[in-house]
Amino acid sequence: MTLHIIKSAKADALLNVAELASPEDQVLLVEDGCYLYTLAQQKFIELNSPVQALTDHMKARGLNEKANALGIELISFKQWVLLTHLHPQATSW
Predict the structure, then answer these.
(1) Phi and psi, residue 2, nearest 5°
(2) Confidence grade of residue 74 (pLDDT, cut at 50, 70, 90)
(3) Which among 35, 43, 74, 90 counts the fewest CB atoms within 10 Å?
(4) Domain count for the chain
(5) Which domain holds residue 27?
């Protein structure tokens, strides 16, 4: 159970995560990684792994409504902290 924190807008980082991730893993989009919300949703729906993104980071980029429409769950900073407690490992990309 790894929390994959995608900070980079580089698609290859997300594709690497998709290759390594298991269904128990969690993907969180933050910072410029928020721009990959469409690709993330496409790749991780195949694994039945939910994709989440920080609300404030998506809002700052004007992506809240688009991400919601694709089923990306928007979470708060407090919820991010809770995710780190639920996952024994966290990796930033």
Answers:
(1) -110, 140
(2) very high
(3) 90
(4) 1
(5) 2-92
Distances (CA, A) of 71 to 32, 42, 59, 92: 19, 11, 15, 22
Residue 58 exposed, middle or buried by CB count within 10 Å (0-12, 13-18, 19+):
buried
**Model pLDDT for residues 22-71, shown as the tens digit of each residue:** 888 899 999 999 999 999 988 888 777 789 999 999 999 999 999 989 88
Q: 3-state DSSP call for residue 63?
A: coil
Sheet containing 2-6, strands listed edge to edge, beginning at the edge strand earlier in sequence: 73-75, 51-54, 26-29, 2-6, 89-92
Nearest to 28 by CA among 86, 62, 65: 86
